C-alpha cells in the first residue's frame, strides 16, 4: 500500500512538471508571436509624387528630397521601417537634389532606401494594416497627382481609422484634401492644419501654375488653417494629424509624428 502511494505521488509530480513546462513554453511562444507582431507593425508608409513637371512650364519637379530624408532620419533612427508608395509606382522623380545637406546624403547613400524610393510600390501593392502611420512628402509634383488619387486616400483613411498617424509637409497636404472618414467627413474638417501657404506660392511665382492653391482648398474642406511667416518652421499636430508648412518644417514633422506614435503606444499599454 505504501509503495502504491509513492508511485502515485511520483506520477502526479511527473505529470505536473510536464504540464507546467508545456504552459510555460506556450506562454513564451505566445509572447514571441506578440513581440514579432509588434515589431512587424513598426512600419510607416511614405507617399511621394510620380509627377515630374510644373504644369506647362517645362520646369522639372518631383518629390522634395529633404521632405523625405529629414522625417525618414527621425523615424528610422527611432526604429521604424519606411516603405514608399507613389501614384504610379516605380522610380519617383526627385527635386531639390542637394547633397550638401548631410541628411539628404545620408539617405541617398543608404543602398536599401535608395533602392526603395527608386522602386516605389503601387497603391494596389500596399496593405494598410501593415502600417502605423502614413507620411505625404511634398514637392510641387504632389499638386498634380495627390489630391485625386482615391487609392492612396483610401490607404490613408484606413491607417488613420486603425488609430494610426497621418502626416504631411509642404505640398504633401495636397494628399489630404479628399480623404474622407467612414462617417463621411473630411479628415481635415475641424482640425488644425497647415501647408505651403498662398504667400509662399506667390513668392515662388507658381500661384498661377499649380492647379489649385493648397491653403484655400484645405480651408474649403473645413480645416482650421494655421501659418507662420513664409519659409519658417511651422508644424501643428491635432488628433493624430501632423502637418508642416514648408521644407524648413520637414524635420519637425518627423519629430511630431514620432511624438504622436509614442503617445499612441503609451496609451495602448
Can you describe this structure?
The chain is of the alpha/beta class and 269 residues long. The protein contains 9 helices and 10 strands. It has helices at residues 2-40, 65-77, 102-108, 111-117, 142-145, 150-161, 198-203, 214-220, 250-268, and strands at 43-47, 63-64, 81-85, 94-95, 133-136, 165-169, 192-193, 224-225, 235-238, 241-244. The strands form 3 sheets. The protein has a 6-stranded mixed sheet, with helices on both faces. A two-stranded parallel ribbon has the order 2-4. It starts with a helix and ends with a helix.
Q: Which residues form runs of ≥5 with pLDDT under 50? A: 26-39
What's the pLDDT, averaged over the residues?
90
Roughly what fraction of the amino acids lie in strands? 5-15%
Total beta-strand segments: 10
Measured as a percent range, the helix fraction is 40-55%
Q: What is the H-and-E element order?
A: HEEHEEHHEHHEEHHEEEH
Strand order of the main beta sheet, please?
Answer: 3-1-5-6-10-9
Number of helical segments with 4 or more residues: 9
| Structural class by SSE content | alpha/beta
* Assembly state: single chain
Task: Output the radius of gyration.
Answer: 24 Å
Major beta-sheet overview: 6 strands, mixed
Report the principal-axis shape: globular
Amino acid at each position: 500500500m505504501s509503495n502504491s502511494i509513492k508511485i502515485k505521488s511520483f506520477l502526479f509530480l511527473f505529470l505536473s512538471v510536464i504540464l507546467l513546462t508545456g504552459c510555460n513554453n506556450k506562454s513564451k511562444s505566445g509572447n514571441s508571436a506578440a513581440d514579432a507582431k509588434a515589431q512587424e507593425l513598426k512600419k510607416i508608409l511614405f507617399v511621394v509624387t510620380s509627377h515630374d513637371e510644373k504644369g506647362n512650364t517645362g520646369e522639372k519637379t518631383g518629390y522634395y528630397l529633404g521632405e523625405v530624408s529629414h522625417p525618414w532620419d527621425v523615424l528610422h533612427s527611432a526604429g521604424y521601417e519606411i516603405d514608399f508608395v507613389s501614384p504610379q509606382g516605380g522610380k519617383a522623380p526627385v527635386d531639390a537634389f542637394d547633397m550638401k545637406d548631410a541628411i539628404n546624403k545620408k539617405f541617398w547613400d543608404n543602398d536599401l532606401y535608395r533602392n526603395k524610393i527608386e522602386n516605389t510600390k503601387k497603391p494596389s501593392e500596399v496593405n494598410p494594416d501593415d502600417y502605423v502611420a502614413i507620411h505625404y512628402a511634398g514637392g510641387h509634383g504632389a499638386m498634380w497627382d495627390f489630391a485625386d488619387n482615391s487609392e492612396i486616400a483610401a490607404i490613408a483613411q484606413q491607417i488613420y481609422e486603425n488609430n494610426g498617424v497621418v502626416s504631411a509637409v509642404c505640398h504633401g497636404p495636397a494628399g489630404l484634401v479628399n480623404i474622407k472618414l467612414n462617417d463621411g467627413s473630411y479628415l481635415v474638417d475641424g482640425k488644425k492644419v497647415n501647408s505651403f501657404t498662398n504667400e509662399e506660392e506667390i513668392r515662388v511665382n507658381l500661384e498661377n501654375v499649380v492647379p489649385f492653391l493648397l491653403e484655400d482648398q484645405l480651408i474649403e474642406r473645413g480645416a482650421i488653417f494655421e501659418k507662420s511667416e513664409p519659409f519658417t518652421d511651422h508644424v501643428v499636430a491635432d488628433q493624430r494629424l501632423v502637418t508642416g508648412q514648408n521644407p524648413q518644417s520637414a524635420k519637425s514633422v518627423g519629430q511630431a509624428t514620432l511624438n504622436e506614435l509614442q503617445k499612441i503606444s503609451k496609451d495602448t499599454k
